[in-house]
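I am still getting used to backbone structure tokens and would like to learn alongside you. Label the sequence line and the structure token line clearly, so we can match residues to local backbone shapes. Go ahead whenever you are ready, and we will take it from there:
>
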Amino acid sequence: MRVHHVALEVADVETTSAFYEDALGLHETRTFEIDGERSHCVGGDGGGELQFVEVDDPDRGVNHVAVTVADLDATIDAAVAEWDSEVVHRPKRLDGGDRVAVLTDPEGYRVELIEADG
């Protein structure tokens, strides 16, 4: 079994998708509409996807989304400068050696950034 995707309700599918594509390096995997709800999916090399479902009143039932990045500091700098992201938790090194930080996306969801050690 593997995780196929996580769906997040958003108010602005274009802005949210652009953040994950431009700031975090994910790419569009598919777009579709069902019963008037537009969806845009993005993914990386690992096979899982994030699906953004555009709704009028998003429900914030998700704690956070986690993505791996090649350069944690550069990703944070770009997200803050270009997307006005808020840094919730500054970078720190975990016992296993990975560095992690948490920031917000344009919809206010928390995004955990993980820079793998080695």
Summary: The first helix runs from residue 13 to 23. The mean pLDDT is 92. The helical segments are 13-23, 72-83. Strands lie at 5-10, 27-34, 37-43, 49-54, 64-68, 87-93, 99-104, 110-115.
